[in-house]
Amino acid sequence: MADLFKDILSAEESLFANEMALDFDYLPKEVPHREGQQHYLADCIKLLLAGRMGKNILITGEPGIGKTATIQWVLREMEEKGLDESAKPVYINCWKKDTAHKIVMEICSQLGYKWVQNRNTDELFKEIANILNKKSAVIVLDEVDKLEDEQIIYQLLEDIYRKCIFLITNYREWLTELDARVRSRLTPETVDFKKYTLAETSDILRRRAKAAFVPGVWDEEGLDIVSQKAHELGDMRYGLFLLRESGNIAEKKASRKIKKEHAEQAINKLSEFSLKKDSDFDDEEKVMIKIIKENPGKTSTEIHEIFKKYSNKAYRTFHRKLKALEEAGVLKIETDFAATGGHVSRVRLKK
Ligand SMILES: Nc1ncnc2c1ncn2[C@@H]1O[C@H](COP(=O)(O)OP(=O)(O)O)[C@@H](O)[C@H]1O
Ligand SMILES: [Mg+2]
After folding, report:
1. I need a labelling partner for 152 at 20 to 30 A (CA). Which of 91, 92, 260, 328 fits?
2. Cα gap 166→86, rounded to integer Å
């Protein structure tokens, strides 16, 4: 019988020193090339620390370019400097906590408030406001476009007195579609994250690799093509995936180095796994794709009008599906200026 486990490397021989450092939600020691944004956010928080009113910031930009990492880094710095005593940081991912109740429960948990049994959302919100209003608060709503109910933003704006609210989204047009009452209270400044340059991408990935692998195992050429690919795709997650996968491939071959050829194989694997197959879409998604294909450059509202012939989904639900398709890399939603003023979102199929 063949020896299945023949070529395995022992733990001492592993190319990985700390594989966790490649996890998407691992917060690295440093988040370079976002210093401008870090200072900007820190300056807003400093207002609170100086006893002033804070600011609300809308952070926008494509997925995978360090929005979450940057804000979490700033919050961790605050905690490390003990500043969280005067301005309490609260971080919510609205993809995971998408209703007012879930958000309120999460804030209670982050504040260490335990008397949540049999209390409704409003009661708990009052408790939170009581705690936060003793000092000031930095409230981050990440992936805010995934919120089911925007009322909670209104409540935070109204009932928490001294605060910075940072809202993060991949969709610039989210604000224009926000309820006018909430929007006029919010009046945020916008911080737009631009894509990393190739040199920045390469530096970031090299630092992540340094934290994750045994020193000296990477061939420079391998790192170069991984950086190139990650830059091309514009999402740092692909870079992290490729670093890990190249390491896995090299280990599988019992190689003591991660070479260009291993990185190339990892890149090939990437295209296999990221492209969704036709059969992965549900019926409504298939109809949506067909309509968009037949109506290039139409706005999302116009596409929804046509879609209504097939399904009575409300615009919100339709829009969520549209965004999911964008995240799967099928289409692109672009913000455009409307003839009547304001913005519209245009939908285009990729390729
Ligand atoms: N400047 C950076 N330094 C180190 N890691 C980064 C940097 N920018 C992004 N990353 C990493 O890339 C991944 C995607 O970044 P993330 O902040 O989650 O993107 P976004 O929130 O913009 O979608 C995360 O794992 C993050 O740690
Ligand atoms: Mg994010």
Report:
1. 328
2. 17
